[in-house]
Design goal:
Blueprint lengths: L2 E2 L6 E8 L2 E8 H15 L11 E5 L6 E2 L26 E4 L11 H7 L15 H9 L7 H11 L3 E5 L6 H19 L2 H4 L5 E4 L3 H15 L6 E4 L5 H7 L7 E4 L1 H9 L10 E4 L2 H4 L2 H11 L19 E6 L6 H5 L8 E5 L11 E6 L5 H15 L4 E5 L3 H13 L5 E3 L5 H4 L2 H6 L5 E4 L12 E6 L6 H8 L12 E6 L2 H16 L23
Parallel strand pairs: 1-3, 7-12, 7-13, 8-10, 8-11, 9-10, 11-12, 14-19, 15-17, 15-18, 16-17, 18-19
Antiparallel strand pairs: 2-3, 4-5, 4-6, 6-14
Length: 535
């Protein structure tokens, strides 16, 4: 007879029968406890985040799904699908944040009713916009304002300095252009033409030449009935080109990038002392360290109003309008030098820094070597199912855009490339061609993630996962915009361990239905005005 004996700890005996007779197996008590604990854990119910109805989180592992109707407790820790994604064995895993709404939150009637009581349908006629502008909007089939437009336009017409932070695609461009054109026309009617001649009335600062061209195109459409002149000046051009912009008739509205405007100011091509409006579009980018020094220099040349009364009549000062899809940081330090922060009226969307509830967002853990094949299959499927809609493929670096473009070209995928290192002559017209539908795939850096009109885009692919929550929000915001195609989706390839940390923050925010962390600004706390301006 064979006898198994363990001499340590309390012992429990088990007997089994063999051909040679009974065998006694002695099992230590601590091992018995471990087995019983495992049985208890396995016997428990599955993770209780599933209810009847639509799924909010759909995971490869069904036990980690979460229903749209399930609300996490305040102190309840979410069970993340991406929890083990730093391990090599997680390649091939995925989860999706499903869309829970069919319509963007910034265009729903319920939100409009919250802002303007006792009105079920609000149109631009209710915002005291002049008749000619209403006719232009009607010709563009734009009848009802979005939530951000309802909040912003009346305040701009009143002459207040504005900081507007609202989700991407919510109509911020019209929020400032409509009241600016309306007031410029009113000024022209009340002032002598000779007084208004040779004076730039409005400057709109944007971070890229592509966005400058887009904003200028909208401005020209709105200004057509009034003879108000709009011009652009962008980076990548020589000084001669910049001088030509101001040679004959200076524009009433100038759309400019910061670098080009600094060049024009240094060569005395324009005078901003009599400016009526200064717009800082994509404010989170413009107050970034890469632009902030130039922005301070520009602000030092402008007399910014502190009260609405200072924006009207002879000797008026400039009204300051700042727009962004993420609440900008570093605003207080810069603006406290030129105006009283207490005079800035803050408009903050209820959905600011939330993940868009009307856009499906999928995350796929994939090896770096497999990304190109995954992208090819995705583009092939998209072409079959969504003919005629656009795809944006985002990379973090310009060399990756070039390499990926060559690779897709060898695979027979028609595409365009756009990145900041391209010469100005190459960049000109690339995005316009994509907007017009000449090519359906645009491979780009984050230069295409800020403010550009992407109404025909149905799919965004993060070939390289973005480096921050801000970049993710802007990229994902290229779909699901006001007036864009329905059913927009975002697909993100997750490769590196440092990508996983950001993915887990995004998944946690989605499961908790909370804002993404670390994106608030200190603009609410006015700082004392400085007596000295930096050169």
């Amino acid at each position: 007879m064979f006898r198994a004996h363990v001499s340590v700890g309390p012992i429990r005996c088990c007997q089994t029968q063999t051909s040679e007779g009974p065998v006694v197996i002695r099992i230590p008590r601590h091992m018995q406890r471990r087995v019983e604990n495992v049985k208890q854990i396995r016997g428990k119910n599955k993770i209780g985040t599933i209810k009847a109805g639509k799924l909010l989180i759909q995971s490869k592992n069904p036990q980690l799904n979460q229903s749209a109707g399930y609300i996490l407790g305040k102190f309840e820790q979410p069970h993340l699908s991406s929890k083990g994604w730093k391990h090599n064995k997680s390649y091939g895993d995925y989860f999706a944040i499903n869309s829970t709404k069919t319509v963007a939150p910034f265009v729903t009637e319920n939100q409009q009713e919250e802002i303007v009581e006792d009105r079920k349908t609000v149109t631009f006629r209710d915002l005291d916009i002049c008749k000619e502008l209403l006719e232009v909007l009607n010709s563009m089939n734009i009848i009802c304002p979005t939530t951000v437009q309802l909040c912003t336009i009346p305040k701009v017409l009143q002459g207040k300095n504005i900081l507007c932070a609202a989700e991407t695609g919510s109509g911020k461009t019209l929020s400032y252009l409509l009241p600016i054109v309306h007031r410029l026309q009113a000024q022209k009617e009340t002032e002598d033409e000779t007084d208004a001649a040779h004076v730039i009335s409005s400057v709109i600062l944007v971070p890229s030449r592509e966005l400058a061209d887009q904003v200028a195109a909208v401005s020209r459409t709105l200004c057509a009935p009034f003879g108000i002149l709009t011009k652009t000046v962008g980076g990548g051009r020589g000084v001669g080109h910049i001088k030509n912009v101001f040679k004959q008739f200076p524009p009433d509205i100038l759309v400019a990038t910061p670098g080009a405007l600094i060049k024009a100011l240094k060569r005395n091509c324009l005078d901003l002392s009599e400016l009526s409006f200064l717009v800082i579009d994509e404010a989170d980018t413009m107050f970034d360290p890469s632009f902030s020094a130039m922005l301070e220099n520009i602000l030092s040349c402008i007399h910014v109003a502190s009260q609405p009364s200072e924006t009207r009549g002879p000797g008026r000062k400039a009204q300051l309008l700042m727009m962004g899809a993420t609440f900008p940081g570093g605003v207080g330090e810069v603006l406290s030098q030129v105006t009283d922060l207490g005079s800035i009226f803050t408009i903050k969307s209820k959905m600011l820094h939330f993940l868009m509830p009307h856009v499906k967002q999928t995350f796929l853990k994939v090896r770096g070597a497999d990304k190109i094949l995954e992208l090819y299959e995705t583009l092939k499927l998209h072409k079959q199912e969504n003919q005629g809609t656009g795809v944006l493929v985002f990379c973090n670096k310009a060399p990756t855009v070039n390499w990926l473009g060559y690779s897709l070209g060898e695979m027979g995928v028609q595409h365009l490339r756009l990145q900041g290192a391209m010469p100005a002559a190459f960049r000109a017209g690339i995005y316009h061609s994509f907007q017009k539908g000449m090519v359906d795939v645009l491979v780009c850096t984050d230069i295409a993630s800020r403010g550009l009109d992407t109404s025909r885009v149905r799919l965004v692919v993060n070939y390289d996962f973005p480096e921050s929550q801000t970049d993710y929000i802007h990229r994902a915001g290229r779909v699901g915009r006001a007036g864009s195609v329905e059913g927009g989706e975002v697909l993100s390839f997750v490769t590196h361990t440092w990508d996983v940390e950001l993915v887990q923050k995004i998944e946690t925010a989605a499961r908790r239905r909370a804002t993404l962390p670390g994106m608030e600004s200190a603009i609410h706390e006015p700082k004392p005005k400085s007596t000295e301006l930096e050169e």
